[in-house]
Amino acid sequence: MIHKAEREKHKRDLLNDLFSELGEMLEADRQTNGKACILTDTTRILRDLLSQLESLRKENSTLQNESHYVSRF
Q: Per the database entry, which stretches of residues form a coiled coil (predicted)?
């Protein structure tokens, strides 16, 4: 049975590995790799991607409507 301190260390190590992996996926020329910086950049990127997704959904909907209109004639 793993003691609580060992489980917590394993959990911290896993989180640190995940932060490192996430930091590597972000911009390569980053000044700092602190956790707060990684989370800030990730949040910014996700907001941008969600905005692009919404824009693409609207564009797709418009194109589908136009295609239905064109296919009728």
A: 39-66
Q: Rounded to 5 degrees, what angle do the CA atoms 38, 57, 23 make?
A: 10
First to last CA, the chain: 72
Task: Enter the pTM of the model.
Answer: 0.72
Q: Which two tokens stand for residue 55?
A: 């824009």
CA distances from 21 to 3, 17, 33, 44 (A): 27, 6, 11, 17
pLDDT tens profile 7-43: 999 999 999 999 999 998 987 677 777 999 999 999 9
pLDDT tens for residues 40-63? 999 999 999 999 999 999 999 999
